[in-house]
Every structure is written in structure tokens, then in C-alpha cells.
Write a structure and sequence with these properties.
seven-stranded mixed β-sheet, oxidoreductase, Aldehyde Oxidoreductase, domain 4, 32 strands, Ald_Oxase/Xan_DH_a/b_sf, Aldehyde Oxidoreductase, domain 3, about 800 residues, 19 helices, molybdenum
């Protein structure tokens, strides 16, 4: 029977290993060997000059093998870490050093590096290092950065790292001509990824082969490999990077190299022994990366139907003390803010600001939650101003199915046009209204009000750019046993890649799913890759795996046709057997693999005997000039532009009239990621994303004080939802509008669950309370305080005029 697994909810092959405690993470590597352990001294101050570092008391401490400060680094290691994604508007980009040179710019910045027999001795050594500081005034938060009374970097005027603007026309004229206009101020606070496993790196240097092996909990093994080779002055071929199991990434582990990813390999090379660094939880809070923090000012003009005629957005992005990942997050906010809508004219401007806090890299959603929050709060405000149903206002602004591909007139994060490839937003709206019971909700709300209960309903729509380039590759090798080995350089952090890619290969080759083995994130097996981020794994590596499998299949059919003396067009492959249609003639793929490699020596029959003297036409060479031995395929996929998934979330909440506690009564999702490879895995991604979104909307925030100290840098203080706070069940429906940009018609799904969370909860809570929320996340205590101040207007200014009349002067 021919294998058909694409679109089937196959159970994940990875789960049994993880559920039985057999996962192997970075900290499990080289245990019980002569491995040394590293620890890092981190700045306790947000902003200060380093006057002196005294390490004398450490040098003679028993068990200490090495202590470094910046002065011990030379060559490329003494230079700043790379700015990974430069941009023309990032005129003041700054990156830190592996160890602080003259100044520290956030609490947690690395100052000194110690290697000892074990982590305990290393930590003791850190406590003996004496650092003398000359304190500088810290800049904490967007307001302080904009005020620029003090500077984070003395050579960066006004704390502005970048200014950027994109527009699709004369927004001021469009606003002036609009019948209605309103303004909103919207804020989202900082949050962080907090994966179960923090950062970690192990390195081993082999002096006999001059080869360095690095294990890193990273989202980009190829990127780490390149940086380590460049900074340590090694040839790329001398460095192998392996990513074992990773306990969550969510974006923070796409940044590279972290200081430890350079210092640990250098120490291993220097000492001739393996060295390991494992980050503790506090270190992750204060020295990895955060995201989300932005302040937005919105002015929108619209007609009597709620159709947006002009949209003007200005926002300020807090990128922390350094910009290693460039402007990706604010660029995504500025472009993905439009979601499924088509305003007549759009202008967006932003400033990316330095603060004396932890730097910013993408966190699941990567700027999209902020953009969705701004757009959806604007849609709700328009509906409120016009007295219309919120779904009707959205419908009036949707891009229609017959308008695809749709060019939004902007440049996306990948430098390509922001052109949506496919979608059907009106159909999604019909589905989400049915799932959540939108039309029936008013009666339910009245029923609850009669019982003294407050309930509200919210809706949020989004579009997600996925499958961003530039490329991914794959290698498919059919073994003589008939098993198929697949390798892709893309890393995995629990997304089920081994299952999904095996499904693709099984279908493409016609082999059993159980016979496919997938390896990810190992540069020894696939040296070139980009990484796992931006919901790109299925689109990029999935397409590459598919293409590589087809190459292997093409060769298999060619060889089998010769062996079976049949035409290739008459052959089919099912369950790993190549057969001639309509006949009993067949040959196992394993035997075809043997024939693909004409050896000089014969083997016994059990080994599928074949020699160079018994294979093929005697008049031809055993291996053709345009061929090579072995039954394998290798290919790369590089898209013309990103694919655009989409979705809509809706939630019904109850807010306690006394305590202001927020309870989720019902949650629904409609999602379109094109063709579904494995619906079960897609739904798992949605469930996980919704849980993370609940955290971001109702619990998680980085609480800095004015001196730059993070006050909640532990799981005792940083709130996250328990299973009791996550929806017990989520109603999910799928829409499939295939992408024309890749051979499988797929789009990404990894961030779908988290993108609309702040927007949908703000909408539902606003509906329950009767006043608009303009800042997220929201806690019960904050909601209670807002109730006390509910005399504040829902919208600062709304101007109405009959069509053709001038807008009143002085409206902001």
C-alpha cells in the first residue's frame, strides 16, 4: 500500500524518549569525564565605568584553572561581538564584548570568566574577584530614554539607535479628508522567553586533529559554528557544532554568539580539556534577552462604514543596552501591524532606543503581538466610535480572497516586498464567530449580568509572515538496509521536526514512516543552514527535505528500471519496494541502494551481493560521468519571499466584580497555515502558544526599578500561568489556503498561538468592564485600580463630520 502521511495526525516519534526521561541536553554532555566547569562574574550595576578588576585572590585558589577579564582577550576575541543583522537605518548599532571592556551597561553584563574543577569552586572564585566601579546614571524605560537627560552610550545622541519610516501615501491628507478621526496611546511592557532550559555550551578540543567540537543549546548551530571559527581564528572545517535536545528556545537562543559560546571553546582549546557552562535561572533573567516593550501613538481616519482611510502610527521600541539582532523586532511590528487589513494610506515611524537593561532579541511572535495589539485595539475603538459590531468593522477592511497576491506596499524584515501570498479572511471570520458563539453572546452576557456576573468577549485577527529565507537544505540517504537517513541543519526545540520531516520523506519516497530517521542541528551531517525561528521550519526545511527526497527517488527509479529491465514511468514505490505496475516484478529499495554503489568485492547473498563487474550495461562505466555512487539526494530551498499564515482568536472572560480576578470561560482559534502536514502537531503548537499568550497578557512582565535592577529575576517572583490558568480546552478550526511559493503549499504555524493574545484579552476585558484597556499585560490589581478611575475617556478624541466638511482644527 502506498504511503500517504501528509495531512495525517501521526503521533510524535520523539515523545516516548522525553516522557521517559531519556532526553539528552547540553548539560548531559561529557558528564563523568575530566570536564571543567565555567562561571561568569556579572555586573551588579546597570551603568558604570570599570576602574579596576583585581583577580589576585583567585589565582592561587585550589581547583581554579583559568580566570579571564577583557585584558586577557586578544585579536578578534577582543573585538565587539557581531551585529548579526545590520540595517541602513540602524546608524548607531552597538554590541557588547565577550567580557566588558571599560564600561558595563546593564545588570548581568559579563565581566570576568573563571574555569575550575567544578561549578562550586568556580562560583567561589567569582566571589573573590574585586571590581571597582565609577557609577554612571542609568537610563531605564522608554520615557527615560526619550527624555535623554542621560545617555546609555556617550557616542549615541538622544539614545536613538535607529529611526525608520515607511509609508504608502500622503497620510496627513488622508486623515484630513476622513469623516471620522480618533487617536489612541497603547503600551506593551517587557517580557521574556524563560525556556525550561537556559543557555548552555560545552566544548572539547582535540589537539591531535586540531578539531573543536561544540555542543550548544542554540537555535542556529551553523551560525554558532561560523562565529566560533571566525573569533578563534580556525578554519570552518575545524569546527563542529552539535545541538542536542533543547528545552525550549522561543527566540532567545537564535542570538549568537553569546559570550559563553566563544569563551568556553577558547578555554577548552587553551586548557586542553573539555569545558562546560550551564546558565542558572537568575543568569537567564538578567543576562540573556527580553522583548515586547513598546509605546505606540495611533491616529486613524475612517468613513461611516469603519473603513480605514488613513492610519498613522508612531512607536518607540526599547532595545536594551545593545543591538546584536538589529531592528528585526520593530520592523516586524511596523509591517505586520496591518494584519489582514488594507488601509487606503498607511504611515509608520519608529525610534529604537537604548536603555540600561538587558538587550532585545525576538521572543515567540517577534514584534507581531505588539502590532496585532495596536491594530486590533484600533479596530475596536473604531467600532465603539461608530456604534458598530466589531466584526463588521473588521470585515469592511479585509483584503478579499480574489485580491491575492496582495502587496501592502512595504518592505518586510527579509528586505522583500510585503506581499501576502494567499488567504481567505472573510471565511476565517465566519468560522471564528461560529466557534466562539459571537452572535449568541449578547444574550449570554445579559443572563450573566442578571446573576451579578461580568463577562466580556474579544476578537483579534492577525497575519503572520513565515518561512523567511534565505535558505535551508537537506540530505536524504537511502541505506542498503532500506532505512532512510535524513539530515537538515535546522535545529529543533520540541516542535516535532523528526516526525513531520519523516512524514514528508515517507510520502515523497514511498517508504514506511518507521524506516525514516531524521537528524537536525548537527553541522557534521548538514554543514549549511540558517536556523529555527520565524515559523520557518516546515516551509524551509520541509520543502528542502521534500526536494532532496525527490532527488533520491529519481535516482532510485533510474537504477531500479535498469535492474528490472522496465521503463521508469512504469515503476512505483510503496513500503520501500520498487515494483513494475501490473506485474509481480519488484526490488527492495535497500537492494537498489546496493546497486547504486558498485563495489569491487562481492558479498554473500544476505548482504545483497553486487560488484562492479555484475552491475549495469557492460558497455558503460559502472558510474556515469554525471553521477556519483550511493543512493542519496541533497537539495536546498530558497523562497522568493515569505509566506503569510493568518488566524483569528476569540475569548470569553469573566472578571470578578470584587477581586478583579480574570477567568477564561471559552477560547477559540481559527488558523490558516496552508496545507497541514500533521494537524496534531499544528494544534499542539497552537495550544502551547495560547498558554504562552495567556502568560504574556495576564502575568509576565520584567519589573525594573529606576536603578536598572530587575526585581523579579526568579520564578518565585516572575509570574507565569499554571495549568489552572490556561484554558481547559481550546476550540480549533483550520482553513487551508495553500501557498503558491513552495512545493508543499505550506505556511508556518509556530507563533500562531501567541500573536493575538494581548489584543484578544484586552478586547474581552474591556467588553466586560465597559472601558478600554490601553496597556498590557493587565493584572487584577491594575484592573481594580482602573475601575476606580473609570471616569477616564475610552478614546481621547473622536471627530465626526459630514462627508465633504472640513475637520475641526486642533484635533490631535
Amino acid at each position: 500500500m502506498t504511503t500517504k502521511l501528509f495531512g495525517t495526525p501521526v503521533k510524535r516519534t520523539e515523545d516516548q524518549r522525553f516522557l521517559r526521561g531519556k532526553g539528552r541536553y547540553v548539560d548531559d554532555v561529557l558528564v563523568g569525564t575530566n570536564t571543567l566547569h565555567a562561571a561568569v562574574l556579572r555586573s551588579p550595576h546597570a551603568h558604570a565605568r570599570i576602574v579596576e578588576i583585581d583577580v589576585d585572590e583567585v589565582l592561587d585558589l585550589e581547583g581554579v584553572h583559568l580566570v579571564w577579564t577583557y585584558d586577557d582577550l586578544t585579536g578578534a576575541m577582543a573585538e565587539p561581538l557581531p551585529l548579526l543583522i545590520p540595517h541602513p537605518t540602524l546608524t548607531q548599532g552597538r554590541t557588547q564584548h565577550a567580557l566588558a571592556a571599560d564600561e558595563v551597561n546593564y545588570v548581568g553584563e559579563a565581566i570576568a570568566f573563571v574555569v575550575a574543577d567544578d561549578r562550586y569552586v568556580a562560583e567561589d572564585a567569582l566571589s573573590r574577584i574585586k571590581v571597582t566601579y565609577d557609577f554612571l546614571p542609568p537610563v531605564v524605560g522608554i520615557a527615560a530614554a526619550r527624555a535623554a537627560q542621560h545617555l546609555v552610550h556617550a557616542d549615541v545622541p538622544d539614545n536613538v539607535g535607529a529611526r525608520m519610516e515607511q509609508n504608502t501615501g500622503d497620510v496627513e491628507a488622508a486623515l484630513a479628508a476622513a469623516q471620522h478621526r480618533l487617536s489612541l496611546d497603547l503600551t506593551i511592557e517587557r517580557s521574556a522567553c524563560t525556556p525550561m532550559e537556559g543557555r548552555g555550551v560545552v566544548a572539547r578540543w582535540d589537539p591531535d586533529t586540531s578539531r573543536l567540537t561544540v555542543w550548544s543549546s542554540t537555535q542556529t548551530s551553523t551560525g554558532v559554528r561560523g562565529c566560533v571559527a571566525a573569533k578563534l581564528g580556525l578554519d570552518l572545517a575545524q569546527v563542529d557544532v552539535i545541538t542536542p535536545d533543547v528545552g525550549g528556545g522561543f527566540g532567545v537562543k537564535i542570538n549568537h554568539p553569546w559570550p559563553e559560546e566563544l569563551l568556553v571553546p577558547l578555554a577548552a582549546q587553551t586548557l586542553g580539556r573539555p569545558v562546560k557552562f550551564t546558565e542558572d535561572r537568575r543568569e537567564h533573567f538578567i543576562s540573556s534577552a527580553h522583548e515586547r516593550g513598546q509605546v505606540h501613538e495611533v491616529t486613524v481616519g475612517f468613513d461611516d462604514d469603519g473603513r480605514i482611510l488613513g492610519l498613522d502610527v508612531m512607536f518607540w521600541h526599547d532595545h536594551g543596552a545593545f543591538t546584536p539582532y538589529g531592528l528585526i523586532v520593530p520592523i516586524i511590528t511596523s509591517t505586520q501591524l496591518l494584519g489582514p487589513y488594507k488601509p487606503d494610506v498607511y504611515r509608520v515611524r519608529f525610534e529604537s532606543l537604548y536603555t540600561n537593561t538587558v538587550m532585545v532579541t525576538p521572543y515567540r511572535g517577534a514584534g507581531r503581538p505588539q502590532g496585532c495589539y495596536v491594530m486590533e485595539r484600533t479596530m475596536d475603538a473604531i467600532a465603539e466610535a461608530l456604534g458598530k459590531d466589531r466584526t463588521d468593522v473588521r470585515a469592511a477592511n479585509f483584503i478579499q480572497p480574489d485580491e491575492f497576491p496582495f502587496d501592502q506596499g512595504l518592505i518586510f524584515q527579509d528586505g522583500r516586498e510585503l506581499e501576502y501570498d494567499s488567504g481567505d479572511y472573510p471565511a476565517s471570520l465566519v468560522k471564528i464567530k461560529e466557534l466562539i458563539g459571537w452572535d449568541e453572546f449578547p444574550a449570554f452576557k445579559a443572563e450573566m449580568a442578571a446573576q451579578g456576573r461580568r463577562v466580556g468577549i474579544g476578537l483579534a485577527c492577525y497575519v503572520e509572515g513565515t518561512g523567511v529565507g534565505p535558505y535551508e537544505g537537506a540530505h536524504v540517504h537511502i541505506e542498503t538496509s532500506g532505512r532512510v537517513k535524513v539530515a537538515t541543519g535546522l535545529t529543533t526545540q520540541g516542535q516535532g521536526h523528526q516526525t513531520v520531516f519523516a512524514q514528508i520523506v515517507a510520502d515523497a519516497l514511498g517508504v514506511r514512516f518507521e524506516d525514516v530517521e531524521v537528524t537536525t542541528g548537527d553541522t557534521r551531517k548538514m554543514p549549511y543552514a540558517v536556523g529555527t525561528f520565524a515559523s520557518r521550519a516546515a516551509v524551509m526545511s520541509g520543502s528542502a527535505v521534500h526536494l532532496a527526497a525527490l532527488r533520491a527517488k529519481e535516482k532510485a527509479l533510474r537504477i531500479a528500471a535498469e535492474a528490472l529491465e522496465a521503463d521508469e514511468a512504469d515503476l512505483e514505490i510503496a513500503d520501500g519496494v520498487v515494483s513494475v505496475k501490473g506485474t509481480g516484478a519488484s526490488i527492495d529499495l535497500g537492494t537498489v541502494a546496493v546497486l547504486s554503489n558498485p563495489l569491487r568485492y562481492a558479498f554473500d547473498e544476505a548482504s545483497k551481493a553486487a560488484t562492479q563487474f555484475s552491475v549495469g550495461d557492460p558497455g558503460k562505466p559502472p558510474v556515469a560521468e554525471d553521477d556519483e555512487p550511493g543512493l542519496e539526494g541533497r537539495d536546498f530551498y530558497s523562497p522568493s519571499r515569505s509566506t503569510f499564515a493568518s488566524g483569528m482568536h476569540a475569548v470569553i472572560v469573566e472578571t470578578d466584580p470584587l477581586t478583579a480576578e480574570i477567568k477564561i470561560l471559552k477560547y477559540a482559534v481559527v488558523h490558516d497555515c496552508g496545507h497541514l502536514i500533521n494537524p496534531m502537531i499544528v494544534e499542539g503548537q497552537i495550544h502551547g502558544g495560547v498558554a504562552q499568550g495567556v502568560g504574556g497578557a495576564l502575568y509576565e512582565r520584567m519589573a525594573y526599578d529606576e536603578s536598572g535592577q530587575l526585581l523579579n529575576a526568579s520564578f518565585m517572583d516572575f509570574l507565569m500561568p499554571y495549568v489552572t490558568e490556561v484554558p481547559e480546552s481550546i476550540e480549533i478550526d483550520h482553513l487551508e489556503t495553500p501557498s503558491p511559493l513552495n512545493p508543499l503549499g505550506i505556511k508556518g504555524a509556530g507563533e500562531a498561538g501567541v500573536i493575538p493574545s494581548a489584543a484578544v484579552f484586552a478586547a474581552a476585558i474591556s467588553d466586560a468592564e465597559g472601558f478600554a484597556l490601553t496597556s498590557m499585560p493587565i493584572s487584577p490589581s491594575e484592573l481594580f485600580a482602573l475601575r476606580q478611575a473609570r471616569s477616564a475617556p475610552v478614546v481621547e478624541e473622536v471627530v465626526h463630520r459630514p462627508s465633504g466638511d472640513p475637520v475641526d482644527e486642533g484635533v490631535s
